[in-house]
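so my prof wants the structure for this chain in the tokens format not the other one, which i didnt know existed until like an hour ago. anyway here's the sequence
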Amino acid sequence: MEKSNFDQLLKKYITGQVTESERVKIEAWLDVMKTENSKDLELNPADAERLFQKIVSKKDNLEQIKSFKPSSGKETKTLGAGSLLKIAASIILLIVAGYFSYLMIGKKDNFNFLASDKVEKIILNDGTLVWLQKNSRLTYLDKLSQGIRYTELEGEALFEVAKDATHPFHIKCNGAMIKVLGTSFSLKTSDHVVEVKVLTGKVNFSTASNIAGIDVEPNQKAVLKPNGALEKSAMVQGEITSITNDTDYLMKFADAPLSEVLNSIERKFDVTIKKSSNAAVNCKITADLTDQSLERSLETIEEILNVKFEQNGQVITVTGAGCSTP
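here's what i got, hopefully its the right format
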């Protein structure tokens, strides 16, 4: 059977041969389709051609594409594009898997992540957590052979960088370079302005014309102005809440049941914690696990309560008497 225009377009998309405009439109529509019934991922010939024309159009018609729905009805004969569409959808569902989606980069040399209209959570293969704001893009390039962890950002994100003194974490954005070892901070780029707000650790903020840059410390922010100047100042009250909103960054607990703490850890690190005994889950715990790795968070709980954690991949088992005498 001769391949349809849409069929061929998706094949190009899967192999990375579409234009930037076409890629954005395809991903925007697939992002909408992921919430629809799976049967809607089949297109009849007329649907496929109509959608193809909208995607390759030079017009700014993104909203029309997002609202495009395939014809329904069992009597409609579907074509080969359905299978390719499902392949493409499976790829996109990894990229836009919904609110606070999870992605482990693994061993890929290059990685490109585009958030849709929601906050997306990414866990990089070094353990770094990134909360990518809507319509923002994060690119990962494997440069460990050069002794660094390297990313590029377009838009806005909250970073919780895993500590690794031997591999500094670099972020390139709008002509600026951010360099950290293990730090949490917000980074925003827009209209030739770059702004960094530091929560913990220290960030070096530099440009091509100011290679030494400036160091930005906790509760400070710095802005790269359109004229190339770097300006540093203190964060005002409320800014921390603003940049951590809709994320699992803040992990401070006061006299909270262990079950609540473990549920928060599950959400943040995308793990499953199995309780072999219910004895410990009602124990109360006071601890600040903010900006702590999964490993360190579990170690802290072990230091406070009589419990032990055993991890096997993404599954963690907790045992022990908890707050009672063993």
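also thought this was worth mentioning. Residues 110-244 form a domain with the Jelly Rolls fold (CATH 2.60.120.1440).
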